[in-house]
Design brief:
Structural class: mainly alpha
Helix content: over 70%
Largest sheet: none
Shape: elongated
Radius of gyration: 20 Å
Number of strands: 0
Strand content: under 5%
Length: about 90
């Protein structure tokens, strides 16, 4: 396989990957789309291209998602830990 054939094959694979990714995220809110694509291993620039957003918008959404998950984790830990009572 020469370089030209390899490049053509890679372009087709990229197209298939984008179609599959789009199928996974369709009909979901943008936050869920960004979350799903991030978990699937897409880079912020790739997510931005797929969603027709800027890279900065994707970074901001990813940051908000991380913060909300961190808050959820802290809330879960505080509700699942038994309360310790001491007699003082």
């Amino acid at each position: 396989m020469d370089e030209k054939q390899f490049d053509a094959m890679m372009k087709k694979m990229d197209s298939v990957t984008k179609l599959l990714a789009f199928n996974i995220i369709k009909d979901k809110p943008v936050n869920e789309q960004v979350d799903a694509l991030t978990k699937a291993g897409f880079k912020a620039s790739e997510i931005a291209e797929l969603l027709n957003k800027t890279e900065n918008q994707v970074y901001v959404t990813q940051t908000m998602l991380r913060k909300s998950k961190k808050k959820e984790s802290v809330t879960e830990q505080s509700t699942t830990q038994p309360e310790v009572k001491t007699n003082v």
